[in-house]
Amino acid sequence: MAAEHDLKRASQSRTAVSGVSTASAASLATLPDEELLEAVQRQTFNFFWEGAHPLSGLALDRCTARQERTNHKTAVGGSGFGIMAIIVAVERNWIARETALDRLGRILDALSAATVYHGAFPHYLNGRTGATIPFYRKDDGGDVVETSYLCMGLLCARQYFQRDTEVEKTLRARITWLWEEVEWDWYTRGSEVLYWHWSPNNDWAMNHKIRGWNECLITYVLAAAAPRYPVDPVVYHHGFASGPGFLNGQSYYNIELPLGMPYGGPLFFTHYSFCGLDPHSLKDRYANYWELNQRHVAINRAHCVANPGNHLGFGESCWGLTASDDPEGYLAHAPDLDNGTIAPTASLASLPYAPREVMSTLRHFLSRHGTRIWGPFGFFDAFCEQRNWFSDVYLAIDQGPIIVMMENHRTGLLWKLFMSVPEVQTGLRKLGFSSPHLERANDRESPPACRVP
Asked: What is the C-alpha to C-alpha distance for residues 144 and 163, in angstroms, rounded to an integer?
């Protein structure tokens, strides 16, 4: 009974301080572009504020807008995106800085008390107890990829909250401690590749090597950047950047794709790592990542326009295939794995790569489907017109990139924060990346030129 009372009290407190309004789909569709983006970001933020776990403040893995917040399954990676969303909310004055710091303090309390595995967090945490909730039977331990999304959000918060106050100094110190405790090198098993999972109950039974182009670039960057337990650059070059799933070079819909699987795969590959990593002129020996992501998005959209499966609703203003719920469950949808399910996050989080096309799609979603796909926490996860199926669920890993990537398009806020992290710059340099952010950092570090008489 005491726990339930605490849940109710925390929920009431959360609602009282948010001040976030709910806008109707009809009114949104008529707004100018910047006002529309602001409204979509702000309402989507409700998921991470009103919809967060009421005690820990961590992001629920999924929820509906109607259910009581007694679900304790929180998402570690989704919470990383949620921390980035809180930064946006402070910067845009949706919530007070002090209120955000209070929420982040509770999140850090929960993370500090959680069960970790050589410093890495599991995929799911119980938001009340900090215990691991298994993802699968054997996936009941550390998840180094979800941990990397969490660290990305935490490091952005450490960069943003830089005031010389005890609260903010303590926040920065706590984040540094959590980040430095992750034993990235442990997850190589002494080899030249990172492994996704480790469990004290099942050891390396999942045996999932992280290689080939996918959503895990950020994992390798942070593993190389780690101050205490880094991996050698050879792990990136011989592990991630190897195998048949990395290099491509083929053309799809007359668009050449440098890296990745046929047709590029689901669009979250262009979102998750790049919530923090600024892809503009980000290059290494393998690719220009801005061009790669633009082409991936263009192929995904071109497929939906061509619509070889004759799915109802697909077209120039209705596209976006990525991992999401669908009428049968959950699937990583892509042009070569297309069952007619559109996920709003796929196109909306692609705003930096195709702004004109995404704005057209955003207005189409609101005007054609309205409240069937729009609710108190923003866009529902997915829909399939062909089967008259419309989700009533929100997922943390889909809501977060909408807010963050929209903000990156508008102001570059999270890109600037993450790319300014000293350890991140070290990691990128170790792996052989170039970026305007690194060049500016070099300029700041260089001594002034001497005048020759």
From this structure: 31
Report the 10 Å Cβ neighbour count for 385. 18
Selection from 8, 38, 1, 3 nearest residue 23 by Cα = 38
Q: Of all residues in the chain, what percent carry a pLDDT higher than 90?
A: 88
CA distance 66 to 149: 28
pLDDT at 441: 83
Between the CA of residue 358 and those of 203, 320, 347, 390, what are the distances in Å? 44, 10, 6, 20
CB 396 within 8 A of CB 62: yes
Provide the whole-model pTM. 0.93
- Answer whether 332's CB lies under 8 Å from 263's CB: no
**Strand 132-133, strand 142-143: pairing:** unpaired
Q: pLDDT tens, 62-111?
A: 998 775 556 899 999 999 999 999 999 999 999 999 999 999 999 999 99
| Residue 158 exposure: Cα atoms within 13 Å on the Cβ side | 24
- Alpha carbons 203 and 327: distance in angstroms, whole number: 35
pLDDT in tens, 337-383: 999 999 999 999 999 999 999 999 999 999 999 999 999 999 999 99
